[in-house]
Amino acid sequence: MNPQRGQSEQRNEDKKVIHAEPVSSVTVTPQSADLVEFSSSISLFCSASGSLLSFLWMKSSYEAKASNRIQISDGGSTLTIFKVTRYDHGLYSCHVQNAVSNGRSSPVNIFISYGPENTTLKVSPSKEHHEEGSDITLGCSAESRPSAEFTWSLNGNPLPDTGPELNLKNIQISQSGNYSCQAFNNKTQKYQTSQPSAVSVLDDRLRKRQKEESVQLRCSAAMN
Hints:
By secondary structure, this protein is mostly beta strands. The protein is built from two helices and 19 strands.
């Protein structure tokens, strides 16, 4: 065998280059998902044209990395999230590259519903006693996605009012009692009721009499 020929063949082997097909048509399925916290899991599948591909998953501007709930499989092309939480909510995209080009998918929206939680009722103005004929506003809030629907009750009896505010105009003694609100999430199908808040309405005549008695007591004390 000619030594020079052997060396030439070896150099030709070293010069061989594997040509990659450019990346194109990067797509993620499903294109959106509407899930409930703790009761759902999801797999996102990334497909692309090209060869010698490597995959990277992003959530907004951060890399989505494997963890105890997140699994990346099939050579990086599949992202699975087990028992989704509210913190998994957001936009996900797949980035694909090889030696000659790269591409990315359109973002897909993962919507996670949760709640209601921390349902709270506040009375404004906040007083121990409210004068008869005054106006009171009760406000209800809850942590919920989507926003919760609210209903109201007085002493455990449902009121016809709905919404996050209950406005009591020209309040009467008969409206005294324990008010509570209930939050409902139509996605999670869960309810939560606030702690009751007492509203005490003082008879205007009694209030005036108490005020007069208080003035009389102060006058008597001053004379003595």
